[in-house]
Design a protein that fits this description.
GO terms for molecular function: hydrolase activity. The chain is of the alpha/beta class. Helix content is 48%, strand content 12%. Strands 5-4-1-6-7-8 form a six-stranded parallel sheet, sandwiched between helices. Strands 2-3 form a two-stranded antiparallel ribbon. Helix 8 packs across helix 9.
């Protein structure tokens, strides 16, 4: 099983939003950004995209150097938040993943996030040992989740898998690579119709265990 991270395993907003506001406050202090912080809906609605595309939506018309500084600051504030115990998994994620691992199912992450963020969340939440691979666009410099998942499948010689996620990028990554797609319908970040192509939609993460039994 290949899992997206934000909005699938991790309640992103519990860590992201404090870091988001701190990032803009710091950029104003540094004099590289002026004006109000863009609304939270701007970044929450962009989750699942590559970070460079997120900033293009959140801060259109701003120099790319500012976007890259925002990358650095956001990651730094998120890592500090994790160290301070901020950020939460969805309620049944840890137990469900542990149960899947106990059944001998190979578990992977495929995220469009930065490497430090993806690995940091898994490490601080104590889940790294049960995953065979933690793949991120930030580490492998892939241009789409389709390419990221393709690379993962080839590297680990995976012939059959489920792609589990909450955004259209997850559906596309699964379908383009011939995988069964499980759409997570509980985060609320996505736009209408994003999960239309999923094979199955689940209302809570633990529903995956019932799907396996079927």
């Amino acid at each position: 099983m290949i899992f997206d991270l934000d909005g699938t395993l991790f309640q992103t907003e519990t860590l992201l939003l404090p870091a988001y506001h701190a990032t803009f406050e710091q950029m104003r202090t540094e004099g590289i950004y002026s004006g109000e912080t863009p609304p939270e809906s701007a970044i929450l609605g962009s989750l699942g995209m590559l970070l460079e595309h997120i900033w293009q939506r959140v801060m259109p018309g701003v120099e790319v150097q500012v976007h890259r500084r925002a990358d650095e600051l956001l990651l730094d504030y998120q890592m500090k938040g994790l160290e301070n115990g901020e950020g939460a998994l969805y309620g049944d994620v840890a137990d469900t993943l542990t149960a899947l691992h106990a059944q001998g199912i190979r578990l992977f992450i495929a995220s469009n996030g930065l490497e430090g963020y993806v690995k940091g969340v898994m490490e601080f939440k104590g889940l790294t040992p049960i995953f065979e691979g933690l793949y991120s666009a930030g580490e492998f410099q892939t241009r789409s989740k389709v390419d990221l998942v393709k690379q993962l499948l080839e590297t680990y010689d995976v012939k059959s898998a489920w792609m589990v996620g909450d955004r259209s990028s997850d559906v596309e990554a699964g379908k383009e690579n011939g995988l069964t797609v499980i759409g997570c319908d509980y985060a609320g970040f996505r736009n209408k119709g994003e999960l239309a192509g999923a094979d199955v939609r689940i209302a809570k993460f633990s529903d995956i265990l019932e799907l396996i039994e079927k």
